[in-house]
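Task: encode each sequence below as structure tokens.

Item 1
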Amino acid sequence: MPTADRWIPPGMHHVWSIEDAELFTLMVPGWVDDGTVPAAG
């Protein structure tokens, strides 16, 4: 997908949704609603 975007927090891996489920849960609405992501940490 040439126009796809991705975001992986620093220090996380491909399955970061399992590594930090809380951060992933916070990230989804921001990404979908306005393209922003929370700060990792």
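Item 2
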Amino acid sequence: MSVGKVLVGVLAGAATGVALGILFAPAKGSDLRKKIYKKGAKGTDAVKESFNEFLDNVSTKFDKLKEDVSVFENKIKLHPKENAVEE
């Protein structure tokens, strides 16, 4: 599952939860606003966590790619004729 889909799901779930909370809340306005704020903060934390996981994943893949390119470069430098591309 892609991070984008997870992010959309988290945002949609948070929006749905807030909307239902407002519709069915038996609390007065000030209490309701506090609850909405807390739920919004939790949703924001979840989005931040998902984004950080995404960045870690991209960073790991980028580091692996740099390593692979470096190995390939060294291989070509050591044996240039064996790795020549024929046209």
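Check on item 2: The first helix runs from residue 3 to 24. The two ends are 40 Å apart (CA to CA).
End of task.
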